[in-house]
Structure formats: C-alpha cells, structure tokens
Write a sequence for this structure.
C-alpha cells in the first residue's frame, strides 16, 4: 500500500511540474509573439522550426569558445561553449516537434510550405517561427530560436536569443546571433 501511495505521489508531482511548465511556456510564448507580432496585419505561426536555418545559426556560434554580452552595460553575461552546445542539443531535439493552434492565443498555425502563399495574399501579414523555450540558468531566463518573415517571404530575420522576465513580461535581453535576409 505504501508503495502504491509513493508512486501516486511521484506521479502527481511529475504531472504538476509538467503542468507548471506548460502554463509558463504559454505565458512565455504569448509575451514573445505579442511583441514580435506588432503590426497591422495578421500574424501566423509555423508548425515547425526550420532545421536548415537553425543549423546555419548554430554553425556560426559553435565555432566560438564563448559569447559575451556587450550590449548590456549593467550585466555582463558570458555564454560558454558548453552552454552553447546545450542549447544546440535542446534545439535539435525539437526538429520533429509541431505546434498546434492550442499552443497560442488567437494565432493560426501553418505549415512551412504554406509560408509563401500566406505572405503573398496580404503584404501586412507576418509569419513567426519559434522554438520551444529552453530554460537557462534559472526559471527567469530562457533561450529560443525565433524567425520573422514578412513582405512575401523576401524579407525577414532569424536568430538565437535569450529572454528574461522583467516587470512580469518576457522581454528579449540578449541577441546571441541575429541575421537579416
């Protein structure tokens, strides 16, 4: 009987922890998408992240022994090669993951193959590609891959970023790497 109670307790704690993460993930994604979707047109989310683009960005950062945050004078931040490798491994695990519309508030999820048609239909539309948030050092800082596509798919940007919770809202705090195209 004690063994059954122990397993039930462990199961309850595990489910509560996962529900807590899911709730926090929704909050993070909502804050990030709300900031990134600041435009007059409709914003769509891609079902999957673009592994080719992620690998291109990872190649650029994994060649470095560390990355230093020079943009923030108040806080010095050094991301070590071990931490960069941790991010890379966690991102690569997400290549087959797919977002569902339930994961976002009032956002339509589209396939990658539908991006050009979606953007050609309305010049004010925007497509956001985002990874699952990856916790970094504490539950107050997360790492994400994020891409913004607009103007018929001809313009956009992608990058790897740290977000920190400030004043109750998740805000971009450090661009590890960002490229425009």
């Amino acid at each position: 009987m004690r063994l059954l109670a122990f397993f039930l307790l462990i199961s309850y704690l595990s489910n509560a922890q996962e529900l807590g993460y899911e709730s926090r993930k929704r909050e993070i994604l909502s804050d990030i998408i709300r900031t990134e979707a600041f435009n007059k047109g409709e914003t769509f989310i891609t079902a999957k992240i673009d592994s080719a683009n992620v690998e291109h960005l990872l190649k650029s950062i994994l060649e470095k022994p560390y990355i230093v945050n020079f943009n923030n004078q108040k806080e010095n931040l050094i991301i070590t090669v071990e931490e960069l490798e941790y991010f890379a491994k966690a991102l690569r695990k997400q290549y087959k993951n797919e977002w569902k519309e339930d994961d976002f508030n009032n956002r339509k999820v589209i396939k990658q193959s539908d991006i050009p048609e979606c953007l050609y239909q309305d010049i004010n539309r925007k497509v956001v590609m985002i990874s699952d948030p990856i916790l970094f050092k504490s539950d107050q800082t997360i790492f994400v891959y994020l891409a913004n596509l607009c103007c018929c798919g001809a313009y956009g940007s992608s990058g790897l970023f740290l977000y920190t919770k400030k004043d109750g809202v998740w805000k971009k705090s450090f661009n590890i790497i960002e490229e425009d195209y």
